[in-house]
Amino acid sequence: MTSRIAQTFQLLKSRGEKALVAYVTAGDPDLEKTRQILVGLKDAGVDILEIGVPFSDPTADGPVIQEAAQRALKKGATLAKILDMIEGLRKTIDLPPVVLFGYYNPIYAYGIERFAQRAKAAGVDGLLVVDLPPEEAGELRRETDAKGLDFISLIAPTTSEERMRQIARQGQGFLYYISITGVTGTAKPDTESVKKDLARIQSFTDLPLVVGFGISTPEQARAFSFLADGIVIGSAFVRLIAEFAESPDLVPQVSALARKIKEAMEE
């Protein structure tokens, strides 16, 4: 059975469009506002929702997302509550594909088999576990593969071609190319370097490629959408959420940015 993620990329390709993947940290500023933000992002035309599970000791996240995770944890966000929120949304609106982004510890603590069952039942489509390289993912993937959850893999500028091939062979859903060396939201990617790497990866895989880490403006989104099948925007949304957390304009502000980015990608 074709996954919701694969169906989305197929549909976008048939329209000549690229995917906008929007990241938000679940529970920042609180889970109810996260729910409202996700609805707003869907209405603004976001194609895939990447929902961050807050963790106390992140390694791949820059300061903007780290601070969001700390705020979410203080407000009581947990993996169980996040899955409940996703399930509630799936029951009420036509939600785009959902990718859970996070670290292995909360999943392991929840229980791997239990997590795979619950995530599938809640309507999660894919997982991106930042600190779980392919060699160490077998225990989790036995459960998630059986449930039809796409296991999304990362490729970095420092990844060797041999390892790129290995990751691509085992990949599902799409491949996430990290456009910078470093953590999220801390540097601007170099278009030419990204272009070369994406061309190499595209030569040996048919999986869709998305580019993330460091893309924050409509102009950047437009430039990189020409090179890949989609782009990920994270820190720009999280920064805006922090700025308008207590404002009635929170959801309109986030939705407006998503709409501007999506429109720029379609120009």
TrEMBL record:
It is an enzyme of class 4 (lyase). InterPro entries: Aldolase_TIM, RibuloseP-bd_barrel, Trp_synthase_suA. The keyword Ribonucleoprotein does not apply. GO terms for molecular function: tryptophan synthase activity. The keyword Aminoacyl-tRNA synthetase does not apply. It catalyses: (1S,2R)-1-C-(indol-3-yl)glycerol 3-phosphate + L-serine = D-glyceraldehyde 3-phosphate + L-tryptophan + H2O. It holds the Pfam family Trp_syntA. Keywords: Amino-acid biosynthesis, Aromatic amino acid biosynthesis, Lyase, Tryptophan biosynthesis. GO terms for cellular component: cytosol. It comes from the Bacteria. Pathway: Amino-acid biosynthesis; L-tryptophan biosynthesis; L-tryptophan from chorismate: step 5/5. Its EC number is 4.2.1.20. Tetramer of two alpha and two beta chains. HAMAP family: Trp_synth_alpha. Belongs to the TrpA family. NCBIfam families: trpA. The alpha subunit is responsible for the aldol cleavage of indoleglycerol phosphate to indole and glyceraldehyde 3-phosphate. PANTHER family: TRYPTOPHAN SYNTHASE ALPHA CHAIN, CHLOROPLASTIC, TRYPTOPHAN SYNTHASE, ALPHA CHAIN. This is Tryptophan synthase alpha chain. It comes from Syntrophus gentianae. The lineage of its organism: Bacteria, Pseudomonadati, Thermodesulfobacteriota, Syntrophia, Syntrophales.
